[in-house]
Every structure is written in structure tokens, then in C-alpha cells.
């Protein structure tokens, strides 16, 4: 079957910088950080005491006490982001279309909060204290499954995990379903709820996260010479993807288009990226080939930009090796400087920002870039964003285990490129 165009008609988000698309995007444009001291639990026993929490979200108020107790934070985030996205898309799921709609929604870690709570209960209160719903609550497919159940979606329904590149992985695979004619609509994205004390302790012991307890707002500083690790965050983002024909037939407003997707593996190390950047370089070139574009067509790159010494160096080298001299003409920024690292959901959150950047013709900044690393010499849009017409935006995401996932989003044009 001939490939079909895949468009975006709805978006939803819960993030450290806002719990709606407009709130989150406005804060990103203004360079406002969502990183602050952790408030959901006591951090007195931890070395790192800050992160990027989703704020002002009460699952009991949203779902009711019974349902909130029966779902992990990852599922709660995913359901709320899906509600927002479906509302924007004005997509009604009926008997006439429910078999043509699917869900691919990922998570990097799964129901970690529920895992920790269950283990504590088991060893302090005994075996009878464990909820009979503990297993479905911790499973990484629960968010996707719950979306399908709640909305009566009968098409393909599954979850995936590729660490911190999960969001782009889900979007790329969902787009492929539509492109090859296996679905008309896909609900896709990723969710993460890993800001809990055991995870903070583990990442700290790995020396992967920043320890700037004295100034959390300045802790995430991608491409800066003083960067000392990423900042753990949580959240979710969901996109509604549709075949162009289906969207046009129902008169949907089109927000943008998924035009390219590339995926490779470093086959190198369980946590560290391959310093050569070869896997990342090839993923970018694969996405360009999939989109039938060249490096000259890319107007902006939303970098993975984690604020770790190794990632930022590798990614810069990979961009330069993929784009050649053109790398110096393409603005690159890291919105993780404001959101922190939403881990498995990071690329989904950043997809929302890429699409809003295209819509408004505005490149978000990299904040906290006070002293740019001289080895990293690209245009990282420090401190303040800038207006620019954007037709094609590349979004990079790389994950533990050597996963490299790159997506390219485009401004919707009725006649294509």
C-alpha cells in the first residue's frame, strides 16, 4: 500500500511547566523553569532534593477517590493528557470508527510509585496488604490499556519502552500504522511518573543528575561548561494522529504533520551514549530520508539536550557530522533546560513544543546557558527565544541502552512539501 500522510489534530500535556498545552508553551516561550524543591514527599534522607514535578494536579478531584486508588500516576497523567488531546481534536469515538482507532503509548519505567508502595507494604504489613490491582497498576501497558477501555477503542493497542527515547518511538510507530493503512487514527505519546525517592537516590548514585540543591532553577543547563547532570521530571503528552484523508473528511483542524522518523541503536553501553555519535547521526539521516528532506530543509532542532557532560557533547558532534557546515546555520535548543528530563515522556512533551513552535513561528530558548562549552559551538539559542518561520523541525531523543529516535514534524501544507 502506498504511504499516506499523517497529520496531528490534537495535543494534551501535563508537565513541570504547565498542565495544558497553552500554559506549558507560554512558560516555555518565556523561559520559565518548572524545576523546584520536591514537595510530594520528604527529601531529608536524599542528597538531591529537587526535580520537575507536575504541580496542581489532584487525581482524586479528576477521577474520584476510587479510580485514583486503582491507577498509578503514569496512567492518571496519560488519561488527562488524552482527554485534552481528544477535546482539541474534537474526535468523537463511535461504533462507526472505533475499530479504525488505535493506541500506542509508552513509558520508560512503568508504575514505579506503585511498585515502591507495594514492596514497602509487603515487608511492613504482610502479604495480605498487597492490592489485587498491584500487578495491572505497575504494568507499562496500563496507560494504553486504560485509554482503550475508557474510550471503547478497538484498534491496535500496545505499549513500548525505549528509555528516554520512548516518546519519539511511540509517535514514529503510531505514524507508521496510519501510513501503511492499518489505522485511520492513533492516540500516541508517553507518560512518566518516576520522581520518587528511590529513583532520585538511584540516579544520584549513578552520578547522572545535578546536585545543585542551592539553586534548582539553574540546575538544568544544557551545553553549558558547568553542567553537572540532568534533572529528574515527570509528566505526559499525547498526540492525536490521523490519516490526512480521515482528518479532511471530518473537517478537523490540522496542527501539523509527522513527516519523518529514524531509529538506530548504539550497541555500546547500558547507560552511556557512544561518544562518536554515530548512532545518533544515522538516526537523523534516516529521519531525513524518510521525510524526503535534506539538512537544508530543517529550520530548527529540538535537542535531546539533557545537561549531562556526555550527552550534550555527543549530540553536538552528531549534529555536526550529520548536517556538515549547515549545522552552524540551524538553531538548536533544549527545552529540558526548563522542564528537566521527563525521561520516557520527554520526547512526547517536546513534540508538543515542536508543533507549537511551528504554529507560532517561534524557537524556544535554552535557559541557564551562561557559559557555553567552547567544544559545543552550535547556535543553542541562549536565554531568549526568537521568532522565525518554521516549516520543518527535527526532534532528537536518545535513551539508556543506546536507543536513538529522531522525529521530524512539518507545517501542514495542503499540497505537501
Count of DSSP helices? 14
Give a quick account of the main beta sheet: strands, pairing sense, barrel closure: 10 strands, mixed
Write the H/E string, N to C.
Answer: EHEEHHHEHHHEHEHEHEHEHEHHEEEE
Fraction in helix = 25-40%
Structural class: alpha/beta
Low-confidence sequence ranges:
none
Kindly report the average pLDDT value.
97
**Number of distinct beta strands:** 14
Span from first to last CA? 21 Å
What is the molecular shape?
globular
In terms of DSSP E residues, the strand content is 15-25%
Rg, Cα atoms, Å: 20 Å
Q: Output the strand order for the largest sheet.
A: 5-4-6-7-1-8-14-13-9-10
How is the secondary structure organized here?
Blueprint: E1 6-14, H1 21-29, E2 36-37, E3 50-51, H2 59-63, H3 65-69, H4 73-89, E4 101-106, H5 112-125, H6 134-138, H7 142-151, E5 157-158, H8 166-179, E6 185-192, H9 197-205, E7 235-243, H10 244-249, E8 256-265, H11 278-291, E9 300-302, H12 309-323, E10 332-333, H13 336-339, H14 346-360, E11 362-363, E12 386-387, E13 392-399, E14 403-410
Parallel strand pairs: 4-5, 4-6, 9-10, 9-13
Antiparallel strand pairs: 1-7, 1-8, 2-3, 6-7, 8-14, 11-12, 13-14
Amino acid at each position: 500500500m502506498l504511504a499516506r500522510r499523517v497529520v496531528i489534530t490534537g495535543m494534551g500535556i501535563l508537565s513541570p511547566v504547565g498542565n495544558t498545552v497553552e500554559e506549558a508553551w507560554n512558560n516555555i516561550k518565556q523561559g520559565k523553569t518548572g524545576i523546584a524543591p520536591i514537595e510530594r514527599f520528604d527529601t531529608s534522607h536524599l542528597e538531591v532534593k529537587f526535580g520537575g514535578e507536575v504541580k496542581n494536579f489532584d487525581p482524586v478531584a479528576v477521577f474520584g477517590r476510587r479510580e485514583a486508588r486503582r491507577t498509578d500516576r503514569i496512567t492518571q497523567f496519560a488519561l488527562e493528557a488524552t482527554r485534552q488531546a481528544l477535546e482539541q481534536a474534537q474526535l468523537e469515538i463511535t461504533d462507526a470508527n472505533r475499530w479504525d482507532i488505535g493506541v500506542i503509548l509508552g513509558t520508560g519505567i512503568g508504575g514505579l510509585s506503585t511498585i515502591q508502595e507495594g514492596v514497602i507494604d509487603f515487608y511492613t504489613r504482610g502479604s495480605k496488604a498487597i492490592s489485587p490491582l498491584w500487578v495491572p497498576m505497575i504494568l507499562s501497558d496500563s496507560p494504553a490499556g486504560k485509554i482503550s477501555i475508557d474510550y471503547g477503542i478497538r484498534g491496535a493497542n500496545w505499549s513500548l519502552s525505549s528509555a528516554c527515547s520512548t516518546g519519539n518511538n511511540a509517535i514514529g510507530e503510531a505514524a507508521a500504522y496510519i501510513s501503511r493503512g492499518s489505522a485511520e487514527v492513533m492516540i500516541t505519546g508517553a507518560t512518566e511518573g518516576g520522581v520518587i525517592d528511590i529513583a532520585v537516590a538511584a540516579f544520584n548514585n549513578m552520578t547522572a543528575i545535578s546536585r545543585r540543591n542551592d539553586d534548582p532553577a539553574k540546575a538544568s543547563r544544557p551545553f553549558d561548561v558547568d553542567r553537572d547532570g540532568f534533572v529528574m521530571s515527570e509528566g505526559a503528552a499525547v498526540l492525536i494522529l490521523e490519516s490526512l484523508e480521515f482528518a479532511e473528511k471530518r473537517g478537523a483542524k490540522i496542527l501539523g504533520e509527522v513527516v519523518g522518523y529514524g531509529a538506530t541503536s548504539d550497541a555500546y553501553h547500558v547507560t552511556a551514549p557512544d561518544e562518536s555519535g554515530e548512532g545518533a547521526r544515522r538516526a537523523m539521516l534516516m529521519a531525513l530520508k524518510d521525510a524526503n528532506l535534506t539538512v537544508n530543509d530543517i529550520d530548527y532542532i529540538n535537542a535531546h539536550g539533557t545537561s549531562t557532560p556526555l550527552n550534550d557533547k555527543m549530540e553536538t558532534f552528531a549534529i555536526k557530522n550529520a548536517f556538515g557546515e549547515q549545522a552552524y546555520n540551524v538553531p538548536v535548543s533544549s527545552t529540558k533546560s526548563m522542564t528537566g528530563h521527563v525521561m520516557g515522556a520527554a520526547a512526547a512533551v517536546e513534540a508538543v513544543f515542536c508543533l507549537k513552535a511551528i504554529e507560532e513561528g517561534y524557537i524556544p530558548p535554552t535557559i541557564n546557558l551562561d557559559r557555553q562549552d567552547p567544544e559545543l559551538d552550535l547556535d543553542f539559542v541562549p536565554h531568549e527565544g526568537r521568532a522565525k518561520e518554521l516549516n520543518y523541525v527535527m526532534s532528537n531523543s536518545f535513551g539508556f541502552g543506546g536507543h536513538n529516535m529522531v522525529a521530524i514534524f512539518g507545517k501542514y501544507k495542503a499540497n505537501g512539501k
